[in-house]
């Protein structure tokens, strides 16, 4: 079975979910952030993250046979059938699958 989810990624994602949930509930105390590192001369940057590209079929929002680029890829697993979890949804991988070094 092919399966790769680094423990640190799971821990970090769990912490982000917990923080965002606390903000949504109004239970996050900004005073707890006083001693954080400070960024100066801030801009928004971009960096590549692993994702999947391919022709989609059965997507609830995108017509069949469109080439798409998924959101960030978190896991690929399975034996006969491969499944992938991206940030936004699950996919079943079909046809030719080239995961390179991932």
Most strands sheet: 3 strands, antiparallel
Backbone structural class: alpha+beta
SSE string: HEEEEE
* Total number of helices: 1
Gross morphology is elongated
Strand order of the largest sheet: 3-4-5
The fraction of residues in strands falls at: 15-25%
| Integer-rounded radius of gyration | 18 Å
Which parts are unreliable, with pLDDT below 50 for 5 consecutive residues or more?
none
Number of strands: 5
Average pLDDT, rounded to a whole number, is 87
* Share of residues in helices: 10-25%
Distance from first to last alpha carbon: 14 Å
Q: In words, what does this structure look like?
A:
There is one protein chain. The mean pLDDT is 87. Helices cover 19% and strands 23% of the residues. It has 102 residues and is an alpha+beta fold. A hairpin with a 3-residue loop joins strand 4 and strand 5. It is built from 1 helix and 5 strands. A 3-stranded antiparallel β-sheet has the order 3-4-5, with no helix packed on it. Strands 1-2 form a two-stranded antiparallel ribbon.
Topology (SSEs and partners):
Elements (H helix, E strand, L loop, with lengths): L6 H19 L27 E4 L9 E4 L3 E6 L3 E5 L3 E4 L9
Antiparallel strand pairs: 1-2, 3-4, 4-5
Short description:
The protein is of the alpha+beta class.
């Amino acid at each position: 079975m092919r399966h790769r989810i680094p423990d640190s990624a799971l821990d970090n994602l769990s912490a982000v979910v917990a923080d965002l949930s606390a903000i949504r509930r109004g239970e996050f105390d900004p005073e707890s952030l006083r001693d954080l590192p400070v960024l100066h001369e801030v801009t928004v940057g971009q960096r590549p993250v692993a994702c999947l590209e391919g022709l989609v079929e059965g997507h609830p929002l995108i017509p069949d046979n469109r080439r798409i680029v998924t959101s960030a890829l978190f896991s690929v697993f399975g034996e006969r059938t491969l499944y992938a979890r991206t940030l936004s949804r699950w996919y079943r991988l079909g046809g030719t699958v080239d995961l390179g070094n991932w």
